[in-house]
Every structure is written in C-alpha cells, then in structure tokens.
Design a protein that fits this description.
Layout: H1 2-6, H2 14-25, H3 32-57, H4 65-87, H5 99-120
Helix pairs in contact: 2-3, 4-5
C-alpha cells in the first residue's frame, strides 16, 4: 500500500480514512503522529484478527494453501469495501473508488492473502 501511495496511485490510504472516522466518532483529540500510530496499530490488529479467523476456516476452503489465502482475502476485501465500510459512510464502495485506490486495495489484499495462505494455510 505504501508503494502504491509513493507511486501516486492513491492519496490517503483507506485504513487512514477508517481510523480517522473511528477517532472522530469517539471524539478523540489527536495529532498527526498519534493518528498515524493508531492507523498502523488498527490495521495490524485487523489483519491479525482476520488471520486468526482464517486459521479457523482455511481447511474448509478449496485449493492449495495460497489459493485458500487468496479466497479468504478476496472475501475480506468484498465484505469490507463493498460492505461495512460504505455502510458506515466512510468510503464509497470499491466499485466506485478511483482506479488507483481500487487497485491499491486489490493489490494489498492479494498480497495479504498470498502471504497468509503460505504462512498459515498449510498448518
């Protein structure tokens, strides 16, 4: 995601939007460094939590370990960016995102899924 941002494909990353929305809803005062730290922590926690969920369902998914990770991450992408994120009025659905943002989200979830499957899916 950082590489896509540095290439100019995306401005503010979607996890930043989500974290800002949550902090605003909680009426939390913050500065830029603490907001960035909260974004990183929240995104890692979300990824770790979903990695644990993957461990529970991986054996029920078809294909190789990496394929299972890709299937899971694709589902996560759709549930998040076509589901709860637009429902919470944080960002528009994935299909309505700017192409650079949409492709950044897809690339990030493909990377997450492939690594998740390779590391956790074969256990």
């Amino acid at each position: 995601m950082l590489a896509c941002q540095r290439l100019g494909l995306v401005g503010k990353q979607p996890p930043e939007h989500i974290t800002e929305h949550a902090l605003d809803a909680a009426d939390v005062d913050r500065d830029e460094p603490s907001e960035n730290a909260a974004t990183v922590a929240a995104h890692f926690a979300y990824g770790i939590g979903n990695g644990a969920a993957f461990a529970l369902v991986a054996r029920r998914l078809p294909g190789s370990a990496v394929t299972r990770g890709l299937i899971f991450a694709s589902g996560l992408l759709l549930v998040s960016y076509e589901g709860w994120v637009p429902a919470a009025r944080i960002l528009p659905p994935l299909r309505s995102q700017a192409p650079g943002t949409a492709w950044t989200l897809v690339a990030g979830h493909v990377t997450y899924g492939a690594v998740l499957g390779a590391v956790a899916g074969s256990r």
